[in-house]
Design a protein that fits this description.
The protein folds into three domains: 52 residues; 38 residues; 37 residues, no CATH class. It has five helices and no strands. The chain is elongated and about 110 Å long.
Length: 147
């Protein structure tokens, strides 16, 4: 590359070399300014993130892995992260002053309660059956006795 910078007498052309140095120094200065500006922008972004993130806290939950996976997939299909969905749950709980859904114990009706008790006592239990046809015959026979 230095051949380009030689004059007719084979000596380095100082004028060309010094202008090349000036260009290189200028480019270095421009790059330095660009990097400094980029660093400043990055610092500003990090400060903004820091301010925004300073208002958030980490929380650890113990949850069944399958439940977490299914919930994550559901919330992802809704465009939400698990974190965002959890925050929505807390906001709704605060808004409702309780759980944002009814938590009730479903009591079985009288007929179902009797059937549960009979099954526990092995009283009036049908089966086991080898196939569904035998099951249906037994159920139909029981219904015709009750009628």
């Amino acid at each position: 590359m230095e051949e380009i910078y030689r004059n007719n007498f084979g000596k380095p052309n100082e004028a060309v070399l010094s202008s090349d140095r000036i260009v290189r120094k200028g480019m270095t200065a421009v790059l330095f300014i660009c990097f400094a500006f980029a660093k400043q922008i990055n610092t500003t972004i990090m400060k903004v993130r820091g301010v925004l993130m300073a208002n958030k806290e980490n929380m650890t939950l113990r949850i069944d892995p399958t439940l977490k996976k299914e919930a994550t997939q559901l919330f992802k299909s809704l465009g939400l992260s698990l974190s965002a969905a959890t925050e929505i749950f807390y906001r709704q709980a605060l808004r409702k002053k309780g759980l944002p859904f009814a938590v009730v114990l479903e009591e079985p009706n009288e007929k179902t309660s009797k059937a549960i008790e009979d099954a526990k006592k092995k009283k009036d239990v049908l089966g086991p059956f080898d196939n569904s046809d035998d099951l249906m015959k037994a159920l139909n026979a029981k219904d015709s006795k009750a009628a």
